[in-house]
Amino acid sequence: MSSPLANLNVTLPVLAAPMAGGPTTTDMVIAAAGAGSLGFLAAGYKNPDAVRAEIAVLREASVPFGVNVFAPNPVPIDRDTYRRYAEAVQREADRFGLSLPTDPRDDDDAFRAKVDLLLSDPVPVVSFTFGLPDDDVLRGLQKAGTTVVQTVTTVEEAHTAAAAGVDMLAVQAAVAGGHSGTFTPDRMPTPVPLVDLVAAVTDAVGVPVIAAGGLAATDDVADVLEAGAAAVAVGTALLRAEESGASATHRAALTDAAFTETVITRAFTGRPARGLRNRFIDEFEARAPLGYPAIHHLTSPLRKAAAAAGKSDLVHLWAGTGYRLAQEKPTAEILSELAART
């Protein structure tokens, strides 16, 4: 099955996945391209002007790249449930002199404005996560010459995305770090090993696949490609890269023996995401409500303050299960080493 990536002169089948919130930088994307790979800007949580500025940097560098966008798939929360959780979290915020939002804030992460930007100034690849955009968005981008990639977590979601006419699928396993791209955040799909999930999706739909989730070793990458993926995308493996924008607190936690496992949590954002298990998760997970993006906006000031202060017990330490293999090396070297058996 031919892959649209070949048209972008992508010769290395290990791509740099988008990591919203800071870890992905333009330097990382440029470094990935220098290795023959493709990197994705993370448009999530950025305003359109910031996305436009990053695109301009990559155009100046004359490298192929993608842009990842959060597609609206809100998880509503009622005011009383939100306020009960906000009161509990506020006690942690008091340590930093913060006043957290007392009412839920809902938004769509400026989705339409970002789509309009990508339609008026087309980029090589656009990927979506959280939800499947409407047909007019998909067709508009494709008409502009953009390859459209949709994140899916099950065969059923793959069928839906393929029927919508996307060009590629980013197949994400449950072991992936950060937010799950599931269409149903209120009920996480049954975990399936990435190799099996890729094989099932490629058998079910005739759309090229980019595989993601827990890939931090050369053999694992080779196995997934042999299962039928056209490429793989790695994120956690790049968190300690020289070009990573991950906070010092986040980087240090990846090698800290005090952190022994990753878990899926909704305590930080109200939407399931995998990160290093810490005190905040232990204390708040049992009472954390679903509610995205309201819970994200609630805890965001606390997480930023804690990261700046080096308080890893209060930070969302997003990481996949292969986090111990993340290395402090140049992005290009990490990607090339992971592709050694391809």
Q: Which structural category fits the helices and strands?
A: alpha/beta
CATH topology of the largest domain: TIM Barrel
What is the CATH level 1 assignment of the largest domain? Alpha Beta
Enumerate the spans where pLDDT stays under 50 for 5 or more consecutive residues.
none
Task: Give the topology, please.
Layout: E1 14-16, H1 26-34, E2 39-42, H2 48-61, E3 65-70, H3 79-93, H4 111-120, E4 125-129, H5 135-143, E5 147-152, H6 155-164, E6 168-172, E7 178-179, H7 194-204, E8 209-212, H8 218-226, E9 231-234, H9 248-253, E10 262-265, E11 273-276, H10 279-284, H11 294-309, H12 331-338
Parallel strand pairs: 1-9, 2-3, 3-4, 4-5, 5-6, 6-8, 8-9
Antiparallel strand pairs: 7-11, 10-11
Q: Could you please describe the fold and organization of this structure?
A:
- It is a single chain.
- An eight-stranded parallel beta sheet has the order 1-9-8-6-5-4-3-2.
- The chain has two domains: about 1-70 and about 110-240, TIM Barrel; about 75-105 and about 255-320, no CATH class.
- It has helices at about 25-35, 50-60, 80-95, 110-120, 135-145, 155-165, 195-205, 220-225, 250-255, 280-285, 295-310, 330-340, and strands at about 15, 40, 65-70, 125-130, 145-150, 170, 180, 210, 230-235, 260-265, 275.
- The protein is globular, with a radius of gyration of 19 Å.
- Strand 4, helix 5 and strand 5 (about 145-150) form a beta-alpha-beta unit.
- It has twelve helices and eleven strands.
- Helix 3 (about 80-95) packs parallel to helix 11.
- Keywords: Detoxification, Dioxygenase, Flavoprotein, FMN, Monooxygenase, Oxidoreductase, Signal.
- One of its GO terms (biological process) is response to toxic substance.
- Pfam families: NMO (PF03060).
